[in-house]
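Hypothesis: this fold can be encoded by more than one sequence.
Test: take the structure tokens below, design a sequence, compare later.
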């Protein structure tokens, strides 16, 4: 992600690809989806509605999605 080359890297396997990172913050920056309403990076559960990602039910409802609740 940032071009550093450290000995303590880790791999993230997602959707058929392998990504190598040296820290969690770089992995989050590269891999976390953005909420389509407030643009925050989703690093928790988030909600997916009809192929769109939101940080929570509040943002999904703000975009006109109905019947969406957060998982608790």
């Amino acid at each position: 992600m940032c071009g550093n080359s450290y000995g303590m890297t880790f791999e993230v396997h997602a959707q058929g690809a392998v990504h190598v990172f040296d820290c969690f913050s770089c992995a989050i920056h590269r891999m976390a989806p953005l909420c389509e309403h407030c643009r925050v990076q989703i690093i928790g559960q988030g909600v997916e509605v009809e192929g769109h990602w939101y940080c929570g039910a509040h943002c999904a409802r703000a975009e006109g999605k109905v019947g969406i609740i957060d998982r608790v």
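Residues 58 and 64 are 10 Å apart (CA to CA). The mean pLDDT is 89.
Hypothesis status: open.
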